[in-house]
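Entry 12.
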Amino acid sequence: MRDPVTGFEYPKAWQEKCRSQGDLADVAKGLSVLTSSGTVLRRGYTTGTTAAAACKAAVLSLHADISSVHITIPCGLLVEVPVTARGGRASAKKFSGDYPADATAGCEFVARAKKKETGIELVPGRGIGTFVRTTPRFSKGMPAINPVPLSCILQSVQEALDQTGLSGATIALSVTKGAAVAKKTLNSRVGIEGGISVLGTTGLVEPWDDHLTESVMDRISASRHAVLTTGRTGLRYARLRYPDHDVVLIGSKIHDALTVARAPVVLFGLPALVLRYIRPDILEGTGFSTVGELGASPGFGDIVKTVLLSYKKTHPDVHVVIVNRDGGVIGETP
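Predicted 3D structure (C-alpha cells):
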C-alpha cells in the first residue's frame, strides 16, 4: 500500500498490525496515515482547503442549500468538506485531524457570494492577516493568502460557477475570531498582523509533528540511503534529485532524525529550518527578523557557503542541500 500524498510504501508488517479495514481504506485514499504500531491517524484540512470549501459553497448556495462540497486539493486528491451554506452565505470549520497542537483547529471560515457580471473577485476580510512589512515573497499590505491555496480557492469557485451556470461572482472571505487565533501562531514574527494565514502546500494537515515520531524514526533508522527533508517543497524536489533514496519528511525534528540515521545521510530543504538548526544565531547582528528576509539580501550566498563549510568539518557524514521554492540549489556542502 502506497500513500498517495507522500508516495511512501507502507511495510506489510505495519498493515498487519492494523485491526480496522475501514481505517486502512482511509490510508489508501490518503485521508489518514499508518504508523509502525498499526495505529491509523487522520489527516486534517489546511486553512486553504477550508477557505476553498467555504467559497465554493457560498457560490453554489446562491441556487440551493449546501451541506458539503468536493474540493480538489493541491496534492491532487478529491476531498469532501462539510459546510453550512444558504442564500450565498457559507461557513466551514477547519478540521485538523489527529493533530491537537494545530492552533487554527476549529476556525470558522465564512464566505459571502454575490453574482458578478463576469470573472471572480475574492475580497479578504476580517480575521485574515495582512503583511505589515514587505518580505521576499509578499508586499506590505497584501493579504496573507499563499499562492497555492489561492489557486485552489479560485479553481473551486470556478467549478461552482460552471455548475451553477453563473458567469462571475464576488466572494468576501473572513475568519471568525481570526485575529485572536493569530496570537497563538508565529504570524507576527513573519510580518503578518490582524489575522491568520491561508496556507497549505498539499491541502492536508499532517499529524506527524506530534504523533509520528516513532514511525518516522523507524523509517530513518532502517534506511541505508535516507534523505531527510524539512517540508513539502523539499520533499518534492528531494524525490526528483534522489529517486533511489528513501526521502523522509521530518519537519523540525532535525536533531532527532540525524541522531538515528545511518551514515551517510542527506539533509535537504528550504533555508529557514536547515540554517537555523545548523546555526541558531544566524540572524544575530543582521538586522533581519527572518531567514527569508536575510535570503533576499546581498551576500546571502556567501553566508550559506560559510555556514555549510563549517558544518561539514564537524559533521562529515551529513550532506546538506539547501534549495529555494523553485527547487534551485542555494547551497550544498562539498
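Annotation: The mean pLDDT is 90. The radius of gyration is 21 Å.
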